[in-house]
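Morning - FE2/S2 (inorganic) cluster inputs below, output right after.
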Amino acid sequence: MAVFTPEEQSRFEEELGLVLARFPEDQKGAALLEAFHIVQDILGWVPDKAVELVARELGLPLVRAYEVRSFYTMFHLEKPGGHVLEVCTNVSCACRGAQEIVDRVCERFGLAPGETSADGRVTLKTVECLGSCGTAPMLAHNGEYVEEVDEAALENLIKEIEGD
Ligand code: FES
């Protein structure tokens, strides 16, 4: 089964072509992260078939492409829910209540870190430092940073998601 529909395939080729134009021919592998971002923008996640396609396009060993996809938590290995919550649990955020955020989200949506709720509404990930330590605790909601998350802010976010 193809990775993309014909329209998606055209978009992938066009966007990857623009990226590869910036790299020397023998350094195409350096575009790996950008290629995965393109795939995720199109599909919402990076399935195995896309990893194989990207590895072929960039002339990389398949294992290299797989290890990069699995190393970076911003790439989804499964189709995520409509709301992706990435809660930073690194030092600054941990010291300022990250675990409470994780616990509250788990309890309200009936899931565990790394899971998607049964209704497909929410995916929760715990992630390493997102570079916003000065505004800890923080999380990313569909890629948008939500900083200095206190009880009220978290409750508002949960209600917004529940009402969606
Ligand atoms: S420790 Fe959470 S953003 Fe850096």
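Note: Residues 88, 90-93, 129-133, 136, 138 surround FE2/S2 (inorganic) cluster (CB under 6 Å).

O.
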